[in-house]
Amino acid sequence: MTLYGVELVRCADAEEVASVVADELVAGARSGQLLVLTGGSSPGRAYELAADREPDWSAASLWWGDERCVPPDDERSNFLLAREKLLDRVGAPPREVQRIRGELGAEEAAREYDELLRAVRLDYVLLGIGPDGHTASLFPSQPSLAERERRAIPATPTLDPLVDRVTMTIPVLCSAPEVVFIVTGESKAEAVERAFGRPPGPETPSSLIRSATGRTRVVADTAAAAGLRS
Questions:
Q1: Residue 223 domain-assigned (yes or no)
Q2: Angle between the N-to-C axes of helices 78-85 and 44-53, in degrees from 0 to 180, rounded to the nearest 10
Q3: Helix (H, G, I), strand (E, B), or coil: what is residue 66?
């Protein structure tokens, strides 16, 4: 099977996936990269391992690919996941933590993040994949997939929980030289096959995200990668 624009890193299980991604985050932190983090069910363990392996994150700059419009201490917050699994565990915090302030509401938070993103160059983007093929808060066949001017926009999800969101746009996510999808579990296998084993299309937003200047990789366990051949 052809892999459309990505390299597959096939791991034995979710722990190996987390270990591979943790090592990359640590390398980025040590070299002072601008790292874009993700939420969802897959990355938490990677954040824990990254904090364990490198206590000094003072050179790194952390950003988020998307966020729900909730306070930063809300259990649904992507920032909260990173805070509990990574930031609260390190000895020296990042030089910069640029979370999306979802509590401002989708329009204002998106406007603020759009402005902040104008002055930066992303180095490493970490993304997940939903069972419907969405990534960040870019949902299937939505007008947001066509946005080419703004760097961050409001987004309305098409699946529960129906909480307004803010997301980086496709051109921004594709601007990083390193784009990495972290995916685990059998429930993601169909979405992974559609995203990386078929031609890209708006019905599977993750199929539209490929680094424009470097490489795109999928770090997946055996269950999630079951529909792909490398």
A1: no
A2: 30
A3: strand
